Amino acid sequence: MALLRKLSRPLFLPPVLHSRPLQNIILIASCLILLIFFLYSLREPEPTQLLPYQIYPQTNDSIHHTVTEFLPASVETGKDSTRELCDSFPKHVLSRIQPVLKTGHGDNKEKLNAQMDSTSACFTPDELIIFSDLDEKIRDHHAIDILAHLPSAHYNATTFKMWEEYLAQKEMQANDVLDTAAQVKHINGWALDKFKFLPMMERAWAMKPNRDFYVFYETDTYIFWDNLFRFLQTYNPDANVYIGSPSPGRRDPKRGDQGTLFANGGPGYVISRGAMKTLLQRTTGPYGQYTDDPLSVKFSYLNHDDECCGDSVLGWVLWELGIPMHGHWPMFSDYGLHDIPFNDQHWCQPLITLHKTSPKDMVDLFSWEFSQRKSQVSSVPNMFHTTICFFFYRVRASNVDLLHS
């Protein structure tokens, strides 16, 4: 019987825990721990930190007094209007602001010619960067094939079936059969466009590093350079600045499914020096060696066949790096000239860019700007708003011919 009484105690407990009061204390403590854990699991989750973004107008920009960088245009016998306007163009600004035109070999040639005769007319080959999907000459400029040096993963037709379009175009160039019915039938330039955005960031910085701002635009984008230069006077280039015309992007599951914005490539967008550095930054090891891939490799997985657009990819990459897009609309307008709504949202808002601009409108707008420049006085402050109010009133509301407004 004595043996049985000894065996009735737990065999594997140390003697110190054979005390009944101590066992009760341990039991109560365990229950309290379980209760606290249960209550903790029922707590309200902490609100997810959202990244801010805004859609213009949010602040009163009339407090910013800006002065034009342009000189008044003079009229000289024997000069055409393009040369006259370009003579007044403030070339010194291009040491701080870098224009980057994105096009493609398959772009409409009439639109491309109108672009080179208007928005891009005043830039020398050294001042304007042109990225395309084929190395070729555009007027006196060299269009750079921005896809030529992408990593070999892009050539995997299983992952990127649309990439075959690019390889076929290169083969046609080598065989001197470009610009034929075969190309029109088989080459889909839009399929190649999504691949250009990330390598454009790397190449633009490599070619023209440390510019204050990089202005990216497309063949049918019209830019009022005077207003853009004034607008950028109000921004710190070393801050993370990413601005343009807002379009809805992906939802972020890490931030409570928060919606995001990206800058529509058609109206153009601006990325600051600070944002470019954040975008292109790579981590290094103890001996200075890179420990991660460059931008176009690191995020290449986003450019799959089901992805619509490269501007969406770029916006998401910037978002992932903590740079939200500030949507300044309608200043960066996704409308064509004759499609701009005449309402309170647009009335007397500064206009910086237009999208889907027809070749005729591109040239007419350029001539209209020249006519305004003739009477402009460079010392008049804050014409940033009044010029565009005049533009809307005279050109859009009155439906007058641009050349005679």
* Silhouette: globular
Q: SSE order, as H and E?
A: HHHEHEEEHHHHEEHEEEEHHHEEHH
Please report the total strand number as a whole number: 12
Please state the CA-atom Rg, rounded to the nearest Å: 30 Å
Strand order across the largest sheet: 3-4-2-1-5-10-7-11
What is the structural class? alpha/beta
Low-confidence stretches: 377-405
EC number: 2.4.1.122
Subcellular location: Membrane
Enzyme class: transferase
InterPro entries: C1GALT1/C1GALT1_chp1 (IPR026050), Fringe-like_glycosylTrfase (IPR003378)
Features:
405 residues; alpha/beta; 8-stranded mixed beta sheet; two-stranded antiparallel sheet; disordered C terminus; EC 2.4.1.122; N-acetylgalactosaminide beta-1,3-galactosyltransferase
Helix and strand layout, with pairings?
Elements: H1 2-7, H2 20-41, H3 81-87, E1 97-102, H4 109-116, E2 129-132, E3 136-138, E4 141-145, H5 163-174, H6 181-186, H7 189-193, H8 197-207, E5 213-218, E6 222-223, H9 225-232, E7 242-244, E8 246-252, E9 258-263, E10 269-272, H10 273-280, H11 295-298, H12 310-320, E11 326-327, E12 353-354, H13 359-374, H14 383-397
Helix pairs in contact: 3-13, 4-13
Q: How would you explain this protein's 3D organization?
A:
With 405 residues, the chain is an alpha/beta fold. The chain has one domain. 34% of the residues lie in helices and 12% in strands. The protein is built from 14 helices and twelve strands. The strands form three sheets. Strands 3-4-2-1-5-10-7-11 form an eight-stranded mixed sheet. A two-stranded antiparallel ribbon has the order 6-12. Strands 8-9 form a two-stranded antiparallel ribbon. α3 crosses α13 and α4 runs parallel beside α13. It is globular and about 105 Å long. The C terminus is likely disordered. One of its GO terms (molecular function) is glycoprotein-N-acetylgalactosamine 3-beta-galactosyltransferase activity. Its EC number is 2.4.1.122. InterPro entries: C1GALT1/C1GALT1_chp1, Fringe-like_glycosylTrfase. Its main location: membrane. It is a single-pass type II membrane protein.
